[in-house]
Write a structure and sequence with these properties.
By secondary structure, this protein is α/β, with parallel strands linked by helices. Helix content is 47%, strand content 15%. The chain is globular, with a radius of gyration of 20 Å.
Length: 386
């Protein structure tokens, strides 16, 4: 039995991971972690019986502890609880929490000798140099779960030692592809949450609408595959059938295709290098008929341009981009700022920041707090309501 800990088990990636576990029946769950969804976590706890559960929110932890009083499951909370879940004796830790909260438990899991199935891109965007160094030191595997990065990972199998000329990172274009800047001014939260291809959590769905997510993925790809940002090209592919491609030095392009189903990259990470049967719809290229590609509009969707700038600058600037984006998306989802204010907030924070060239973990976490403080003073909470 393979032992697995899931950080973010009640979210979209976490619940689909548990679907993979149900289908395969040879994985033992050592720990589950989530923020505050007590109802869903109780259901998962009673089905999979992990030894440890972390509810990041302390009130939620108290409520779950009472509900599970008839079991031997230990319920913990906070960052210490997340770290405990990461070091629960698992062979592999799937990190699917949202945001920079994933950094410390990811490093803790690596320290404990666990492989990492990474679905928390912010960890590599902000602390890639620390995570990749720790992976090398401990000799563990860093396995991508994001569909695009899993596709790239699959495309490089059997090509070890061959030079990657560039990575072609595909992008659906989100719900507003082709819209003008003026049209984006009136976008509502409900509009932004209607993704044309994928079913995801609210934060990442908004990130896909602004194309900030694609910028984060460019930076993540740089760390995962050791390529500079300028050799990662974003290609808009509305059908979402090609999940990404790799072009080699001889001009050959390898692509990974499939239906938009996150269970495939999840299962591939959990069982790599084995490919197991996975139930579900198969891609029918005859029905697809045509594959279309476009250049992204970085002028209208300036969050992508800002992400590329942050990636080129390096140091602490990716942390500024990520933290400012998290700050702005949270307020957009609460109807406190407009859709186009998300990119404007990121630009404001990046312009005001003095880059730290080689940030320590303390520098990274301090930079995150600086961004929140700066933006709270730039636009006082509640006063930017529309």
């Amino acid at each position: 039995m393979k032992k697995l800990s899931i950080l973010g088990s009640t979210g979209s990636i976490g619940t689909q991971t548990l679907e993979v576990v149900r289908a395969n029946k040879d994985i033992e769950i050592t720990a589950l972690a989530a923020f505050s969804d007590v109802d869903r976590m109780e259901e998962q706890a009673r089905e999979f019986l992990p030894g440890l559960i972390c509810m990041y929110d302390s009130d939620a932890a108290g409520a779950l502890r009472s509900r599970l009083a008839d079991t031997d499951i230990c319920v913990v909370s906070g960052m210490d609880g997340l770290v405990a879940a990461a070091q629960s004796g698992a062979d592999i830790v799937l990190t699917a929490v949202v945001g920079m909260v994933g950094i410390l438990p990811t490093l803790a899991a690596i320290e404990a000798g666990a492989d990492i199935a990474l679905a928390n891109k912010e960890t590599l965007v902000t602390a890639g140099h620390l995570v990749t160094a720790a992976v090398r030191e401990k000799g563990v595997r860093l396995l991508p779960v994001d569909s695009e990065h899993s596709a790239i990972f699959q495309c490089i199998q059997g090509n070890k030692g061959n030079e990657i000329d560039r990575i072609l990172l595909t992008c659906s274009g989100g719900p507003f592809r082709g819209k003008t800047r003026a049209e984006l001014e009136n976008v509502t939260v409900e509009d932004a949450l209607r993704h044309p291809s994928w079913n995801m959590g609210k934060k990442i769905t908004v990130d896909c609408a602004t194309l900030a997510n694609k910028g984060l993925e460019v930076m993540e790809a740089g760390w995962l595959f050791d390529v500079p940002v300028d050799r990662v090209q974003v290609v808009v592919h509305p059908g979402s059938y090609i999940h990404s491609m790799v072009q080699y030095a001889d001009g050959a392009v390898m692509a990974q295709l499939g239906t938009p189903d996150m269970k495939l990259p999840i299962q591939y990470a959990l069982y790599y290098p084995e490919r197991r049967y996975l139930a579900g719809e198969r891609l029918d290229l005859i029905k697809v008929g045509r594959l279309e590609f476009f250049e992204p509009d970085t002028e209208t969707f300036s969050a992508l341009a800002l992400a590329l700038e942050a990636g080129r600058t390096g140091g602490s600037m990716p942390t500024v981009f990520n933290a400012a984006n998290e700050w702005a998306v949270a307020r957009f989802l609460k109807h406190r700022i407009g859709f186009t204010d998300i990119a404007e907030s990121i630009a404001k924070a990046m312009s005001a920041h003095r880059t730290i060239p080689d940030p320590s973990l303390e520098d990274i976490l301090g930079t995150e707090q600086w961004v929140y403080h700066y933006l709270n003073s730039y636009i006082p909470d509640g006063k930017e309501s529309r």
